[in-house]
Amino acid sequence: MGIVERDFIMRLVKQLAELLARAMKLQAAKKDEEAAEVIEAGCLSLLGIDWKTLAWVDSASAAQLLKAPVRIRVFAALLEQRARMHREAGELAQARSKFQHAFEMYREAGDDPEAVGGARRTGAEIDVLLLPQKYR
Predict the structure, then answer these.
(1) What one-character DSSP code corresponds to residue 109?
(2) What's the pLDDT at 7?
(3) Which option is the CATH number for 3-135: 1.25.40, 1.20.1050, 1.20.1410, 2.70.98?
(4) pLDDT tens string 33-91
(5) How far apart are CA 64 and CA 92, in angstroms?
(6) Distance (Å, whole) CA 93 – CA 48
(7) Does residue 5 register a pLDDT over 90?
(8) Assessment of whether the complete model's pTM goes beyond 0.90
(9) Rounded CA gap, 50 and 29, in Å?
(10) Where do the structural domains in the chain lie, given as residue ranges?
(11) What is the rounded CA–CA span in Å between residue 125 and residue 108?
(12) Do residues 54 and 96 make contact, with C-beta atoms less than 8 angstroms apart?
C-alpha cells in the first residue's frame, strides 16, 4: 500500500469516526431523525454515492459501486449504526434488515480483520441461516 492510499484510508476512517460520533451524540439527545440524516448524508460526503442508492440495491451491487474494500467497510459501518438506531427506537424489522445488509457488506469487503470483526458483530444480530447462500 502506497503512502497516498494509506493517507486516503486514514482520512476516510477519521471522517467516519467523526460522523458516527456526531450521530450518536444526536441520538443520545433523542434527536433520532437528525441522527439518521447525519448517517445518510455522510454516505454521500464520505463515499460520493447517495445513501438511498446503496441502501436499496443488493449487497453485491453496492460492493461493485463502491469498489474498494475500505469504502465497502465504511458503508457497512454506516448501515450497522443505522441498524442500532432502529433497534433502539423499537423498529425491529428495520433493524434486522440493516444488520443483514451490513453483515453482507462486511462479507463483501473481504477477509481483513476489520471486515471479519464487523461481520461477527452484525452476524450476532441476525439469523445467518436465512441469508442467501453466498453469505453463510
Answers:
(1) T
(2) 86
(3) 1.25.40
(4) 999 999 999 999 999 999 999 999 999 999 999 999 999 999 999 999 999 999 999 99
(5) 28
(6) 28
(7) no
(8) yes
(9) 26
(10) 3-135
(11) 18
(12) no
